[in-house]
Write a structure and sequence with these properties.
The chain is mainly α. The protein contains nine helices and no strands. It has two domains: about 70 residues, Rna Polymerase Sigma Factor, Chain: A, CATH 1.10.1740; about 60 residues, Winged helix-like DNA-binding domain superfamily/Winged helix DNA-binding domain (Arc Repressor Mutant, subunit A), CATH 1.10.10.10. The model has no long low-confidence stretch (mean pLDDT about 80).
Length: about 170
């Protein structure tokens, strides 16, 4: 795809891309950054874009995926978990703070082990605080399906946690 065709095809899509990014991230500056990053990615792929049948869907999906990656990076870093746990346990003892930190790290590993779309749904709902409607629009599934996915993901996380705690209890008394 040449420069002129790229401009005519993809530049008019900036408003749709921005709306998608803003709906996911909730911050105008971050949304603008994601749109710019998506354009850079699209420009690098311009030689393969001629085969794309729906440029709008492709561009919006590109920006959506970049936003989801950003959310994962922001919300799943170990430092974020530690900071949150320290804030919640501000009045706690060093012992309980260590326990909370270890539990946060454990939960982080469990969330990372979830497969898609469970991983994205848990991150967006439980960490990002997004509504079911927002999550449904991002992952392009019905709200009822999102609720089912979230329920199953939480059940899996709970089972992993209980299994680990049972293992630690057995180890303690062995």
């Amino acid at each position: 795809m040449n420069k002129e065709t790229f401009k005519q095809t993809y530049l008019p899509l900036s408003a749709s891309m921005y709306r998608t990014a803003y709906r996911i991230l909730g911050n105008p500056e971050d949304a603008e950054d994601m749109v710019q990053e998506a354009y850079m990615k699209l420009w690098k792929q311009r030689d393969t874009l001629d085969g794309i049948l729906d440029a709008r869907a492709y561009a919006v999906t590109s920006v959506k995926n970049l936003c989801l990656d950003t959310i994962r990076k922001r919300h799943l870093s170990y430092e974020d978990y530690e900071k949150t746990e320290r804030t919640m346990a501000a009045a706690s003892t060093p012992y309980t703070e260590t326990i909370h930190s270890e539990e946060a790290a454990l939960l982080h590993r469990y969330i990372d082990s979830l497969e898609e779309p469970q991983h994205t749904v848990v991150v967006m709902r439980d960490i990002g605080g997004y509504s079911f409607e927002e999550i449904a629009s991002v992952v392009q599934l019905k709200e009822a399906h999102i609720r089912m996915i979230l329920s199953r993901a939480r059940r899996k996380l709970r089972e992993l946690y209980i299994k680990t705690m049972d293992h630690h209890e057995q180890k303690k008394y062995s």
